[in-house]
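This part of the workshop introduces the protein records we will be handling. The structure tokens are whole numbers drawn from a learned vocabulary of backbone shapes. The record below serves as our worked example for the rest of this section.

===
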Amino acid sequence: MQYRQFGDLDFQVSSFGLGCMRLPLEEQPDGSRNPARIHEEEAIELIRYAIDHGVTYVDTAYPYHGGNSELVVGKALKDGYREKVKLATKLPVWLCKTYEDFGKHLDEQLAKLQVDYIDFYLLHALNKTSWANIMSLGVLDFLDEAVAQGKIRYPSFSFHDELPLFKEIVDAYDWKMCQIQLNILDVNYQAGMEGLQYAADRNIPVVIMEPLKGGSLARNIPDDILAVWNEAEAKRSPVDWAFRWVGNFPQVTTILSGVNDLEQLKDNLQIFDTITPDSMSGTELDMVHRVKEMYDSKIKVGCTKCGYCVPCPAGVAIPDVFALYNKSSMFNALEDCNKLYVNMVRKSEDASLCVECGNCEEACPQSIPIIEKLAEANLVLAGR
């Protein structure tokens, strides 16, 4: 396992951080798997196997697995495993309506995890609305108080919004870590590469989430993209290349990966054994750039999900329809997207409800012919 210095703190952590959002699930009598029903024995074995093989960073959160991830992680960290890792979990800021709610949730999480303190306590999934709300409630004073009480050690945050807000949050407090989304496709998405450098310039360690873009870079790889990966002199899987590209940046401290089973975990451990900063050649970086351009060429609608087109008078979830349409094309995932579109139809959010009023097109800063593209998306996603 490779390790990296955690900013100006006096320790290193494994470059592979174990994410506990996709733990093994129990199989139900009908063959389905409920995300809230973790297979505890397998999950505990998986977490301990990771730690036994060098992983020193474990990441969970209040809502993962319907609130059960923290419970299972707490059990896995018994018998001396707690002392071997840095533990991260996250405050559900959307549930906080008063200052007292901050402490109430933290105490609940400490009890579920069966620990006296949490190393990295993140304000979870900050966006413009949640940041404004918790700032008005005094969240920074709460973090100072929790540190003074010894309940948390390193105040941190995770982020899901636009770059200017990221910079505002970074500059608002003496953060010990931030968590952002980054992968070969999302270089300019949310905080992106500029945000990574902005935090690094302020000596804030950066933990990366979604390095495989929710698994999209790991499965159903289009044949033309697979052919490019196979051109490389070093033969590696698309998963390996995706992790390797993120880990190539010295500004990255830890990369989170959520694994479903022991086989995936062993594969990840083997990959991360060989990932070091600034180790990719120019030829390899050019290849990744080609792959990104090929994925981008498969985008059907250049929607940035800015939200100016919603709410739609007819109830169409316009950005979500376009996101699904793009996903079906980019990731060879039409069958999966057809199934997801059925849920949109059930919720009366699908593109077939468009009445062609034109309000969305007037509001769209990208000048997308939304009416035309909605009709096109509906034909594909509805399987017509």
In short: The mean pLDDT is 95. The chain has 15 helices and twelve strands. The two ends are 49 Å apart (CA to CA). The longest helix spans residues 282-297.
